[in-house]
Amino acid sequence: MGMMGRQLGRGVAAAGALALVALSAPGVTPTASAAADPTANVVPTRVHNPWLWQATVGQRPAGPAALVFFTDRTRYFESTGVVVARDGAYRLIPIGIGEGHGLLSPDGRHYLRPQSGELLDLTTGRQSRPMTAGLDPLAWSPDGRQVLGTRDNDDGVITYGPENQQLNDPEKPDDLLVVDPFQGTERVVDIGTFAQHTAAAWSPGGDLIAATGWPDVPARFAERQRLVVVEPTGGAPRWQVDLGDRRILAGPAAWHPDGRRLALLAFDGCAGPRCTSEQIAARTWRVEFLDAATGQAVGTALPAGTSLSGILGWRGADPVVRYDSDTEQDTERRATLAALSLDGRREVLVTTPVGSTDLMVPGDLLIRAAFGGPEPRPSPFAASLWVYLTLAAPTLLAFVLVMRRMRRRRTASGPASA
């Protein structure tokens, strides 16, 4: 090989080395760093928006999540999941058009997409579809092996006869399902007729479920919900109670850790479907409790302020709640996590950037109350391979052009010197 060939080979190797160095930069090897970092496996106190070129989970998996939030301030310019791994690495979960926000498994390893039934493994980046499409997941079981979900059975269109008479009723009761998200098996839980299910929660031992929804179409239009407690295998309900239009189940973590109480969210302010967005934002919320054995009110309500969206877990006896602050501009919303104490104090545990919603924390960290972690920032080097190749391409092209020019000069000067 001549001198020119060796120089060109070195240039190509240098351009490749640029990408390799960037790929191996600190902060983009989460599996190794998490083992050495004593602050790993802790929920960070604050997170930030990712870089526009941040890698997706599929491109560069970063391991189990410490938390997930959603924002449209990414290169997709629409709602996108942001995973913050347990060593602080940031990765993206692209969301399809019209796709809602899914559920994070209790161990932080899997993200279950709604409707499609796709299960994204955050540790490998692989996505599988073991389940039948159409499931809206509501709650993971405490052991992370099953999911409570609901499936819409309504007809897609209304059919009419020759006299323009309606031939079918498109409104059909929905199914409440217990699903194995890994094997794809499912069974219907008989809790009575519901036009639509809105929320569900497993008991700490996994032996009971609480589910809410609208029992019929008029109740849905009036936003009046019913709560039913039943065994996961179905059968006669342990009890049921109508919640009206001012109380809802507190979310997938509504069951108190002692198994003896269920938490509801109740509000003062405008109720019903005619409330404006400003009136909804002005609602004042509190956390109420029902006896899990009887459905009767028990204990003292906890004032929770405005913009409350649900209970994510518990820190001892204190509920850990999420706030999704409402503003005139949806893009100015911000999700925060806080603990409510019995004396009415609120301790902020996690804050997210402006424009974020639907903050989620895996159940294993919530159970250990593993809060107070450091404030990780997204690494600009944690990008997908195409970014590095794009950066390296101009350098490589410039090198090739210089080499070609030098070769022409040498070829032109050769006969003259002879």
Structural class: alpha+beta
Global Rg: 27 Å
Largest sheet, if any? 4 strands, antiparallel
Quantity of strands, as a count: 24
Query: So how many helices?
Result: 6
Shape: globular
Separation of termini? 23 Å
| Sequence of strands across the biggest β-sheet | 3-2-1-24
H/E topology pattern: HHEEEEEEEEEEEEEHEEEEHEEEEEEEHH
How much helicity do the residues have?
10-25%
Question: Which range does the strand content fall in?
Answer: 25-35%
Low-confidence stretches: 1-36
Quaternary organisation of the protein chains: single chain
Overall pLDDT score:
85
Report on the architecture of this protein.
The protein is of the alpha+beta class and about 425 residues long. The chain is about 20% helix and about 30% strand. It contains six helices and 24 strands. It has helices spanning about 5-25, 30-35, 215-220, 275-280, 365, 385-415; strands at about 65-70, 80-85, 90-95, 105, 110, 120, 125-130, 135-140, 145-150, 175-180, 185-190, 195-200, 210-215, 225-230, 240-245, 245-250, 260-270, 285-290, 300-305, 310-315, 320-325, 335-340, 345-350, 355-360. The strands form six sheets. Strands 3-2-1-24 form a four-stranded antiparallel beta sheet, with no helix packed on it. A four-stranded antiparallel beta sheet has the order 4-5-6-7, with no helix packed on it. It has a four-stranded antiparallel beta sheet with strand order 8-9-10-11, with no helix packed on it. The chain is globular, with a radius of gyration of 27 Å. The two termini are about 25 Å apart. The model is unreliable at about 1-35 (pLDDT under 50).
